[in-house]
Write a structure and sequence with these properties.
Blueprint (H helix, E strand, L loop, with lengths): L1 H7 L1 E6 L3 H16 L8 E3 L15 E4 L1 H4 L7 H14 L3 E11 L7 E4 L14 E6 L10 E4 L11 E2 L6 E2 L9 E4 L5 E6 L4 E3 L8 E10 H9 L22
Antiparallel strand pairs: 1-11, 2-3, 3-4, 4-13, 5-12, 6-11, 6-13, 7-10, 7-12, 8-9
This protein binds 2-oxoglutaric acid.
2-oxoglutaric acid binds next to strand 6, strand 12 and strand 13.
Length: 250
C-alpha cells in the first residue's frame, strides 16, 4: 500500500469501518446534515459555483472539523485505524491535522472541482500529507466516487484559480488527463491521496446519498508550524483561497 501511494499518489486502503459500526457513523453524519448537531459557519457549499436547484440547500455539503464540533467522533474505532494507515503511508510522526465531511445529496449532480489540496494550504518545508477518504455509502461513477490523476503528486503544483463564485479554488484538468483514474469503494472502505495529488469527483445523479468522511494527516511538527502561522483549516480562521505560492497563477 505504501509503495503504491508513493508511486501513484493514491491507494485504496481497504475497510476502516466495520459493517457493524457503519450505522453509528451514518447516524452521526445524518445528525450533522439535519442540523441536530450544529455546524454553523463550518458548513458550506463546495458546489456553490453552480446555481442551486429549487429546494436544494447545498450542491455539495462540506462540514469542516466535525470532530471538534462533536468530540465523541474521535473515540470511535475509525480514528485509531486511520491513524495507523496514515503512519504506514507517510511515516510514524503523522498526526490528525483536521477532518471534514463532504456529502452529495441525491440528484444534486454537481462535480467537485479538480484541485490539489496543497494549493489551499500554506507551504510547508515537509510536504508529507495524506487524506484518508472514507465512504459511508457504496460509491461508483454515478454517485461521485473519487478520481485521481496517477503520478500528479510527482509534478509541480498546478496553477489554481478561484471558482466562478470565488468561494473555492480549482485548476484546469479533466477525466481525459493521462492517468485520470476513478476509484470506487464500498461503504466502510477508504482511499488515500497525498496533499499534491490532483483529484475530483462527478456529481451524484442517483437516488441515494453519497456521504464521505475525510481525515487529513501530516507530520506533528508541520501541524505545529501551521498553527504558529495561523493556519488551522477553518477551526478558527476561514480561508478558502490559493495560499501555496507554488500554486498561484503567473
Ligand atoms: O468528496 C469529494 O467529492 C472531494 C473530496 C476532496 O476534495 C478531498 O478529500 O480532498
Amino acid at each position: 500500500m505504501a509503495q503504491r501511494f508513493a508511486d501513484d499518489g493514491f491507494t485504496p486502503v481497504g475497510r476502516l469501518i466495520s459493517t457493524a459500526d457503519l450505522a453509528q457513523y451514518r447516524d452521526i453524519y445524518d445528525r450533522f446534515l439535519s442540523g441536530d448537531i450544529e455546524s454553523g459557519e463550518k458548513r458550506t457549499d463546495l458546489g456553490s459555483h453552480v446555481d442551486r436547484k429549487e429546494g436544494v440547500r447545498e450542491n455539495i455539503t462540506q462540514i469542516i472539523w466535525p470532530s471538534a464540533l462533536y468530540p465523541p467522533l474521535k473515540d470511535l474505532p475509525l480514528h485509531e485505524k486511520a491513524l495507523s494507515a496514515a503512519r504506514e503511508l507517510i511515516g510514524p510522526d503523522a498526526e490528525l491535522d483536521f477532518d471534514m465531511m463532504i456529502h452529495k445529496a441525491p440528484h444534486t449532480a454537481v462535480p467537485t472541482p479538480w484541485h490539489q489540496d496543497a494549493a489551499y494550504w500554506v507551504d510547508m518545508p515537509d510536504k508529507r500529507a495524506v487524506s484518508i477518504w472514507i465512504a459511508l455509502d457504496d460509491t461508483d461513477l454515478d454517485n461521485g466516487c473519487m478520481w485521481y490523476v496517477r503520478g500528479s503528486h510527482l509534478e509541480p503544483l498546478r496553477p489554481h484559480h478561484p471558482t466562478s463564485d470565488g468561494k473555492n479554488i480549482e485548476c484546469d484538468c479533466s477525466e481525459d488527463e493521462p492517468g485520470a483514474t476513478p476509484v470506487p469503494v464500498r461503504a466502510g472502505e477508504a482511499v488515500a491521496h497525498s496533499g499534491s495529488t490532483l483529484h475530483y469527483s462527478r456529481g451524484n445523479t442517483t437516488d441515494g446519498v453519497r456521504r464521505a468522511y475525510i481525515l487529513n494527516y501530516r507530520p506533528a511538527a508541520m501541524i505545529e508550524l501551521e498553527r504558529r502561522m495561523g493556519a488551522d483549516h477553518g477551526l478558527n480562521e476561514n480561508v478558502r483561497k490559493v495560499r501555496n505560492s507554488d500554486a498561484t497563477e503567473q
